[in-house]
């Protein structure tokens, strides 16, 4: 499958006027989203902890994490962001996609909105 990109705006939830926008690679193999550290620090975000991530080759990497507001394709959500190297390519992880009901269409290689956000395990 080819690369899918989307413009994402990252905001500091404590001061929504502080934001950064960039082109993110959609990475359905990543749980959380990754933003270059310099952009997160520029909008006043600081790490709230760290998490160990497993890379595609099986190795592990500990990254600082924080909480940010993410906006893309007309939707806004709060989510975990990883503090990446300053020159890292921004990544939009699957948690953000699923939170707003968007998935990658493998045929068209485009993002598509589902008719509803998936919610399993609840009966009404």
Task: Give the N-terminus to C-terminus distance in angstroms.
Answer: 38 Å
Query: In CATH terms, what is the fold-level topology?
Result: Cathepsin D, subunit A, domain 1
Output the structural class.
Answer: mainly beta
CATH architecture: Beta Barrel
Number of helices: 2
CATH superfamily descriptor: Acid Proteases
Helix-strand string: EEEHEEEEHEE
Low-confidence stretches are: none
Query: What's the multimeric state?
Result: single chain
How much of the sequence lies in strands comes to over 45%
User: What's the β-strand tally?
Assistant: 9
* Biggest beta-sheet profile: 7 strands, mixed
What tags apply to this protein structure?
124 residues; mainly beta; Cathepsin D, subunit A, domain 1; seven-stranded mixed sheet; two-stranded antiparallel sheet; 2 helices
Spell out the blueprint of helices and strands.
Layout: E1 5-12, E2 15-27, E3 33-36, H1 37-42, E4 49-54, E5 60-72, E6 75-84, E7 91-93, H2 94-99, E8 102-105, E9 110-113
Parallel strand pairs: 2-7, 3-6
Antiparallel strand pairs: 1-2, 1-5, 4-5, 5-6, 8-9
Explain what this protein looks like in three dimensions.
The chain is mainly beta and 124 residues long. It has one domain (5-113): Beta Barrel (Cathepsin D, subunit A, domain 1), CATH 2.40.70.10. It is 10% helix and 52% strand. It has two helices and nine strands; from the N terminus they run E-E-E-H-E-E-E-E-H-E-E. It has helices at residues 37-42, 94-99; strands spanning 5-12, 15-27, 33-36, 49-54, 60-72, 75-84, 91-93, 102-105, 110-113. The longest helix is centred in the first third of the chain and has 6 residues, at 37-42. The radius of gyration is 15 Å and the shape is globular. The N and C termini lie far apart (38 Å).
């Amino acid at each position: 499958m080819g690369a899918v990109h989307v413009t994402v705006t990252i905001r500091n939830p404590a001061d929504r006027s502080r934001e950064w926008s960039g082109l993110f690679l959609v990475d359905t193999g990543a749980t959380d989203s990754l933003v270059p550290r310099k952009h997160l620090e520029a909008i006043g975000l600081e790490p709230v902890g760290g998490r160990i991530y497993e890379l595609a080759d099986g190795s592990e990497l500990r990254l600082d994490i924080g909480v940010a507001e993410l906006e893309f394709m007309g939707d806004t959500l709060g989510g975990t962001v990883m503090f990446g190297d300053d020159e890292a390519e921004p990544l939009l992880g699957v948690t953000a996609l699923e939170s707003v009901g968007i998935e990658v269409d493998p045929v068209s290689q485009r993002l598509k909105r589902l008719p509803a956000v998936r919610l399993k395990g609840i009966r009404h």
